[in-house]
Amino acid sequence: MRVCNQCLPPSFTYPAFLIYITFYADDTAATSGLISGRKVAPCSGSPHCLKLAQHWLSSCTSLHVECQPPSALGFPSSIAKLLSLNHPLPTRVIDVGPSDGSRSPFLWVPQVGKMGKYITLSHCWGPLPHFTTTSHNLADRLHGIRLADLPKTFRDAVAITRALGVRYLWIDSLCIIQDDI
Ligand SMILES: [Zn+2]
Predict the structure, then answer these.
(1) Phi (first) and psi of residue 137, to 5 degrees
(2) Is the peptide bond before 15 cis (omega within 30 degrees of 0)?
(3) Global pTM value
(4) How much distance in Å is there from the Cα of 82 to the middle of ligand 1?
(5) CA of 153 relative to ligand 1 center, distance in Å
(6) From ligand 1's centre to the CA of 146, what distance in Å?
(7) What tens digit of pLDDT does each residue of 29-72 get?
């Protein structure tokens, strides 16, 4: 990377080059405990990456005091873990079905106060047309949502939710009735 003379220490003369060297180690390498960097996988949906995400999520919910919800603070760790995994579910969530994908997702209206574990998708809506729930298609969404009809970002979110062993997914454009706000 070439840099201008204003970015250089006084002892350098222009022109100069800075070279960045990044180290990484495989998980099984003897140096893996010393080098935190890992080679970036070509596909973030690979079994290896999903297993790593599960591991990080499990560590976060079970080991990080700072990541616990206020409702779990002050409880013994075994109870705090249960509390951190379960929150009051939103008014509507997408039930993604079993992790084996044997059932299509559908919009579900849980009882008020029903506790559960869910994942929220934060996404850019992108250009029109948007895939939404409205008062006109609400009954269809409650019946079922064909994966093939979903935008790719939503299909990926369903796949990740299933892979992480979570049953419910919240997507604003689907879980909020768009002509009811
Ligand atoms: Zn954490």
Answers:
(1) -110, 10
(2) yes
(3) 0.74
(4) 15
(5) 25
(6) 34
(7) 888 888 888 888 888 888 888 888 888 888 887 788 777 766 66
